[in-house]
Amino acid sequence: MSTILRGPFFGKTTIVVPSGRLDLRPPKIIVGISLTPADGENSLPQGVITLPAILDTGFNRTLEIDERHLFKWAGLRKEHLDLSAKDRFHEARRYALGVANIWLHRTPYAGPRTPPARPPLLLEDSPQVRVMAPIGKPNPRLPLLGLMALVNNKLQLSIDGENSHFRIYKSLRLSLSDFYRELVG
Fold this sequence. Notes:
Elements: E1 2-8, E2 14-17, E3 20-23, E4 30-37, E5 51-56, E6 63-66, H1 67-72, E7 85-90, E8 93-104, E9 121-122, E10 128-132, E11 144-146, H2 147-152, E12 155-160, E13 165-170, H3 176-184
Parallel strand pairs: 5-11, 6-10
Antiparallel strand pairs: 1-13, 2-3, 4-5, 4-8, 6-11, 7-8, 8-9, 8-10, 12-13
């Protein structure tokens, strides 16, 4: 198995975000992500901010972010995301669907400007971002990285509740169909 990221549950009551601090109710699994336009880049460009995201296995999408966080934190407008749908509604709130490069950092989230110790993992098979319209307070309060991001990229998650740790990893075993594809090319 190849470990992508491991760390403790976030136990603090505040978190440093690109625009200051935000109060939280621990415990949470918070990972660092970065967003860039879907332009075929194979490595994260210099100077891209790290965003905190709650790893939410109950969220059945890839990534959800409030439009204000997308702009203020990631420096992107939703129009930069190659929109596939506009003006959709979920629970009376408008949203748009776009495509972006989503990068999962390999070290626990430590802050927006903390340089990554190792190159982040591009979630190649999970480019869809749901951008929620800016109504009231930002919702979600932090971006949500959902179960589909793990499933689509064949990642595994292990949660050790007793010791308040998590681990994201990729199995080195190939499925029979993947083995055949590798063999045939």
